[in-house]
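User: Hi! I'm working on a homework problem where we have to compare a predicted structure to a textbook description. Could you give me the structure for the chain below?
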Amino acid sequence: MVNRSKIKGSAYEAKIRDLLTAELKIEFKRMPLSGSIEYLKGDLWTPFDTAAWPYCIECKHYKEVNWNGLLTAKSSDLYEFWKQCLREAEVMKKKPLLIYRWNRSKDYVCWNDDIILENQMEIKCFDYTFKMGLLKDFTNLLRDAKGQPIRVTSGYRSPRLNTAIGGSATSQHSKGEAADFEITGLDNFELAEWIRDQIPEFDQLILEFYTDGEENSGWIHCSYSRENNRKAILTATKENGKTVYHQGLIR
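Assistant: Happy to help. Predicted structure tokens:
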């Protein structure tokens, strides 16, 4: 017998995958084997930018989603969705991101980090704390103020590729924990400052080979460790043909 609920869920995951890929210019995929792999949870992921993408995404499309019990009942559709999202985010060592809708509704998103939308709700009840808003508003905010997508120039590197390009043997790129990126039209020093001030947890933030006054010079390297995030902030420069690292962000 055809499981209409699973078909509906799969179609919704595909829809959100395509929407996020188009809006954020990052390739999203549905999770292999529907998340049955022990260490890969959630419904969507970014296989080519795993370290750079901070969220574990859970997608839900139901005929109805009851909000009536949010303040009076410890069990509701929304709370159950959120609990599952929290569990799977813990496995992935990422932040939870719940995307859901009911029939003929708009797409909603729930999150619990420092992102603030112009129009949002905050739920704080029965030991649950998260924010909720429209997915459209959330994806718009994930892009920079000039409306340009993030351009990832280096994500995961296989050990063979890392050796071929002269990368460090201990590179976090080879662990899927780091990415190099920039945003067209946004000064890389300003982008590094924003990450330093707005992102609560990362391992290393490096402003690489930036020239003051040349907004397109250099790039940002940022990593996230599954074990211990040091929140190290560095600037990399070339001196006498060698890469030198300085503490802090330097113009």
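For your comparison, note the following. The helical segments are 4-24, 77-92, 135-142, 159-164, 188-198. The CA atoms of residues 20 and 245 lie 35 Å apart. Good luck with the assignment!
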